[in-house]
Every structure is written in structure tokens, then in C-alpha cells.
Amino acid sequence: MNKLTEYPTNKIFDRLIDNKSTNNYLNYISELRKRKTKEIYKRCLLLIEKGSDKEKIIGIDVISQFGFNPRLFQKRTLKIYFDLLKTETNKRVIESTLFGISWNNENITDKQLSIICYYVEHKSAYVRYALTYALCRIEKDKAIDTLIKLSTDRDVDIRDYATFGLGSQNELDNHKIRTALWDRVKDKDQGVRLEAISGLAQRKDKNIIEILKKEYSSIPYHNLSHILECIEYLNDKSFIPILESTKFEDKRFEEYGEKWIIKTLEKLQSN
Question: 3-class DSSP state for residue 212?
Fold first, then answer.
């Protein structure tokens, strides 16, 4: 069986159009991005302009990280995305376009920002979720205000990523960001709470210490490294006896968990 790298470009496009597997789709898209030819880029533009919704999405997804990294034709790609949003109504195409913008949003203009923020009220959770990605790392008031609104969304995945965007994907520290993060500390979902706690810990908010201790006592193993990072951000020695007395109910995780805890203890004790 031939390796994907040996497939002709036409064959990969054909496979993408007929594809029904998420893993295969991502592999095909990644391979086309790596090839970095003008012919592939032009074919993607043709799909976006004249193709079916499925074909549009293929074109959008390929050029979003074309030649990554560095990305090629980035300025042109961004213009194509925003031209598409002027008329597009299919939620899956809009979703893909917003994800594409997320990879190319370093120099987004205020006008472009206003265009994507419009989707904060979109009825599709897929679109709103993609919007959280498009807004991450944009340190402008409108982007922050929209992420704050998304952090209260009824969909837990949207709340989670918007809170991550507010807390960990920018270096801004002001009252409205801290207030939004504190609101999410009360969230019923533990993942969202941890993102809020992490954002506050990164901002050295000492008021989160006691809440972090309470979360630590009930933390599932897969979130242990995340919460240990929060402890390291705060660098508060009151965590030392808590970490030293940690016991693992599931012995399968004991070895790895102890290694992570010892690493955090060493950091706390060395400061």
C-alpha cells in the first residue's frame, strides 16, 4: 500500500470529496498543506468559489494552514474568508471559515473583528464554538468582550474554550477579565472551573488559593497536571503539606502522579 506522501494530488482531492472518516480527512488535508504548490492553492480557491458546501469546506481547511509554518498567501487567504462571510449561510461552511480565521488572526482589523463578533448570537453551537477559536489571542476590547459573553454560553464546550481564551490565551489583566473568570469559578462544569482558576492563578490572584485547594482534593487524575500548573503559578508554600500528603486511590496512576507532584514540590521549596 502506497504511503500518503506518494499519492498524486488529484487522488487526494478525490479521496477528500468521497471521504467519510474524520482521521482520513485530517490526514489528507495535512498532506495537501505540506505540498505548498500554487496549483493546490488555486484549486482550493476554485472549490471555495464554485464547489458544493463540502467542497468549499475542503478548500477552506487546506488554505487555513497552507505551508504551515510559515503560512503562505496568508493575506489573500484572510480576504477570501471575509469575502465568503459576506454571503455564506451554511453553518458548517461558516464554522470552517471561522476556524480558518483563527489560524490567521494576528493582524485582524477592527472592521474584520466586528464581522466575526456578529456570530456571537448565531443559533448554531458549532459556529459559536468556532468563533471562540477565531477570537483567541486577539487582545482588543471587542474580542475580549465577546469572549466574556461566550464564556456564559449554555454550551459547556463553548464556555470552556472561551474561558481558556480569556484566562490563558492572552496576557491582559484587568477588572472585567478577572470578574468574568471569577464568574466561571462557580461553573457547574469542573473543566470550565479549572480554566477560570488557571487564568486567575496566572494573574497571581491570591483569592483563588483556598478554592484551588478545595478543587485539588477532588481532582480527577487526568486534570492533575493542569491543577499543579496553577499551584506553580501562585507559588504559595501553603500547598506544600497538601501535596506531600496526597494519596492516590487508583494505583495505576500513582507512579506518574507522584512524579508530577514531586516536580511541583521542588519548585515551591526552591523559592
Answer: helix
Pick from 99, 34, 38, 41: which is nearest to 67 by CA? 34
Compute the distance between CA of residue 245 and CA of residue 222 in angstroms, rounded to an integer.
Answer: 19
Predicted confidence (pLDDT) at residue 1 exceeds the cutoff of 50: no
Gap between the Cα atoms of 1 and 5, Å rounded: 12
Rounded Cα distance between 113 and 110, Å, is: 5
Cβ pair 73, 102 in contact under 8 A: no
The residue type found at 174 is N
Average pLDDT of 219-246?
Answer: 90
DSSP string, 97-164: HHHHHHTT-TT--HHHHHHHHGGGG-S-HHHHHHHHHHHTT--SHHHHHHHHHHTT-SSHHHHHHHHH
pLDDT tens-digit series, residues 158-181: 999 999 999 999 999 999 999 999
Q: How far apart are CA 126 and CA 106, in angstroms?
A: 23
Closest residue by Cα to residue 105 from 129, 74, 130, 126 = 74
Instruction: Collect contacts of 179-184 with beta carbons under 8 A, ≥24 apart.
Output: 180/148, 180/151, 183/151, 183/152, 184/151, 184/159
Rounded-to-integer distance, Cα 51 and Cα 45, Å: 9
- Which amino acid appears at position 153 of this protein? D
Quick count: other Cβ atoms within 10 Å of Cβ 222?
Answer: 8
Output the pTM of the full model.
Answer: 0.91
pLDDT of residue 80: 97
pLDDT of res. 258: 85
| Beta carbons of 125 and 95 less than 8 angstroms apart | no
